[in-house]
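pasting DNA polymerase III, chi subunit for the record, 151 residues
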Amino acid sequence: MTEVRFYHLTRTPLEAALPQLLAKTLERGKRALVRMTDAKRCEELADALWRRDERGFLPHGTAKDGFPAEQPVWITPDAGNANGAGYLFLCDGAPAEGLEGYELCCLLFDGGDPRAVETARGQWRQLKAEGHELSYWQQDERGAWSKRQGG
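structre below
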């Protein structure tokens, strides 16, 4: 079963929090697939990654760029693992499906959006029933992640 981490965004938006997690993924020598809900959001996230500050460039691509197998970070609304990623990031309420073959799944949700919180709760119940190993992470006052009791 895939290890699943729920990341409850309370201090920073997805566009600020996700790059930190992606950078750590690449530092570990892993590839990432970021699944969004639609192509428009994929392009918005890709643009945000291009505008990232001096912390460094994150190599990534979308369907607009092509060549998924060559992209260390592939951003898509589609199911499947087009870039052979070991880590899956589910964002904006993307369905928690197709986790087989991933070492780690990180599900990020906006704590300020009641619908996102409710969706994440449903995904927690679903994934727990499927037998995945779950953990819950929340941002502290400084935006750093800490593991909390969840469920």
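The chain has a mean pLDDT of 94.
The first strand starts at residue 3 and ends at 9.
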